[in-house]
């Protein structure tokens, strides 16, 4: 598959002839490589079908991308795990606009079904699962995390949340992005960059307008805080993780990070504890019959089962054993 660096030359089509099974596999591989390069890296699970057919095109500049993916025949499961994140190291927010069919998004322990003419956001810095049960047509906008973090605080709180795109700002963003994707290959690089930056601002505003999410923070401090939270969420299962480790990875002083979290309303320790407990609850709710509370305790980054159970009960009003029993029964 050949694509230009700035923009694909029209739709990249991978039609399939059912008489050539080997060619079908090659075409599907080409589609997967296209998504990996233009959106982000995934681990794929797709149902083999002689009718598999896909169209895809994209244009990228700096930390911004717009892509359209059309798939026909058969379900597909795209999982972005820790290995995929390490493979491409893309730190972006992806805004998905399904216009035909629907998809299911799972991230931050949230599961949402996203129908046509809705908007959903995911963070490519965090693991997520994307399920497509059948034919699908989706336009996607990718914006670098630093661009978003300097304009809205706690944006990750809105990931995997479905926003109707039928009226108001979400509808304005929906129509603008569809138009940009359609015209992108006809635009100069300068015009495309100006347009996609403006639409990225509109995307943030459209999502933030649905809640009381603080917007227009426009500060390095907000960006540093968001990055520190991403590091904590990524490494929370490490038993030996320290706050100094987080500060070191962020290239910031521990004192400065403590101040950022204090201004945000809770300490670094409180944030780490909260994220570990939410992770543990998710493990318990998906546990198999032979899973123990101790297994979940250590898998969530806790080193003491008694302290884990006490903190869990204080946070959720039930013990880990209660949740595990309900799951098994």
Overall description:
- There is one protein chain.
- By secondary structure, this protein is an alpha+beta fold.
- It folds into two domains: 12-208, Jelly Rolls, CATH 2.60.120; 220-328, Arc Repressor Mutant, subunit A, CATH 1.10.10.60.
- It has twelve helices and twelve strands.
- It has helices spanning 21-38, 82-88, 145-149, 168-183, 189-208, 220-235, 243-249, 254-264, 268-285, 293-299, 305-316, 320-328, and strands at 12-14, 43-46, 53-61, 64-72, 76-80, 92-100, 103-107, 110-114, 118-123, 128-132, 136-144, 163-164.
- A seven-stranded antiparallel beta sheet has the order 1-3-4-11-6-9-12, with helices on both faces.
- The termini are far apart.
- 36% of the residues are buried.
- The tally of domains stands at 2
Globally, the shape reads globular
CATH fold type of the largest domain: Jelly Rolls
Can you tell me the CATH superfamily of the largest domain? Jelly Rolls
Bin the strand percentage. 15-25%
Structural class of the secondary elements?
alpha+beta
| Top CATH class of the largest domain | Mainly Beta
* Low-confidence regions: 1-6, 8-25
- How much is the radius of gyration in Å? 21 Å
